[in-house]
Amino acid sequence: MPAIKTVDKLPPDIRAWLDEAIKAGHFSGYEAIAAQLKAKGYPLSKTSVHRYGKALKEQTTSETARALCVVAAAIKGADDVEATAQRYLSWVQHGN
């Protein structure tokens, strides 16, 4: 069974703040974010914040790509927007 990540133990409001701080910092500045968390009473290492930020960036990038594929399919006027968007997403992710 995998260990529970320290970030997963944060209260929802602090986790939401962390997400916004990471996004506002353009997925950098993890040392400063870790220091701000410590000041709020949640001492996390820069490494933990960076690892979480990396996963958040991957999730955000994936969600953005999916949304753009749906928009592109809708603009194209596809009969089945969902299927066309999924095909576009496959092309973007895998190049085929």
Write the layout of secondary structure elements.
Elements lengths: L11 H13 L5 H10 L6 H31 L4 H14 L2
Helix pairs in contact: 2-3, 3-4
What does this structure look like?
With 96 residues, this protein is mainly α. The mean pLDDT is 88. The chain is elongated, with a radius of gyration of 18 Å. It contains 4 helices and no strands.
**Alpha plus pi helix count:** 4
Largest sheet: none
Integer-rounded radius of gyration: 18 Å
Spans of 5+ residues with little confidence (pLDDT < 50)?
Answer: none
Total of domains: 1
Approximately how much helix is present in the residues?
Answer: over 70%
The average pLDDT score comes to 88
Overall morphology: elongated
Strands, count: 0
Beta-strand portion reads: under 5%
Task: Please write the string of helix (H) and strand (E) elements.
Answer: HHHH
Please state the structural category.
mainly alpha
Quaternary? single chain
Distance between the first and last residues' Cα: 36 Å
Brief summary:
The protein is an all-alpha fold and 96 residues long. It is built from four helices and no strands. Helix 2 packs across helix 3 (46-76) and helix 3 crosses helix 4 (81-94).
